[in-house]
Amino acid sequence: MKAIVQRVKSAHITVDNKIISNIGNGLMVLLGVQEGDTKKEADYLVEKIIHLRIFEDTRGKMNLSLKDIKAELLVVSQFTLLGDCSNGRRPSFTKAAAPDRANTLYEYFIDRAIESKVTTKSGQFQALMDVCLVNQGPVTLVLDTRKPK
């Protein structure tokens, strides 16, 4: 799995000109599910993301997590994170999980975040979405379960 994690002041998702999800202060996560990913990768990423110390404490140091400050989480499925652009000019998405499997793990990821007592909202799987956010910092991190830990 790959995730782009962005610290935001606010974010919202629009489908067919209607806002379907919105959050205030928190994290927006773009989540790509790769062929061969399992619940193990989802569990790892959920725990990593909700405990990342990327919010400032009273001294201005990035020392607090999403859970510490009781902020919100917005999760958006994005298979294009797995696009391979190394050959030619058109990305290949052969590394992305099949839609049924990707949706199952996407929903599992969201459920695990909710079970961890994090206010969690989501995009709409396989929909054409407009994603609006105010990146705070800016702080943007890339997490990949296939990279050495």
Describe the protein.
This protein has 149 residues and is of the alpha/beta class. The protein has one domain (2-137): D-tyrosyl-trna(Tyr) Deacylase, Chain: A (3-Layer(bba) Sandwich), CATH 3.50.80.10. It has helices spanning 39-51, 66-69, 99-115; strands at residues 2-15, 18-23, 26-32, 55-56, 62-64, 72-77, 119-122, 130-144. Strand 6 (72-77), helix 3 and strand 7 form a beta-alpha-beta unit. Helix 1 (39-51) packs across helix 3. The longest helix is centred in the last third of the chain and has 17 residues, at 99-115.
How many helical stretches? 3
What is the number of domains? 1
CATH superfamily: D-tyrosyl-tRNA(Tyr) deacylase
Q: Mean pLDDT, as a whole number?
A: 96
Overall outline: globular
Regions with little confidence, pLDDT below 50 for 5+ residues: none
Helix content: 10-25%
CATH architecture: 3-Layer(bba) Sandwich
From the helix content, strand content and strand pairing, which structural class follows? Answer: alpha/beta
The number of E-state strands comes to 8
Distance between the termini: 13 Å
Major sheet summary line: 6 strands, mixed
> What is the CATH class?
Alpha Beta
List SSEs in N-to-C order: EEEHEEHEHEE
| Rg estimate, integer Å | 15 Å
Task: Work out the strand percent.
Answer: 35-45%
Oligomeric form? single chain
Task: Provide the CATH topology.
Answer: D-tyrosyl-trna(Tyr) Deacylase, Chain: A
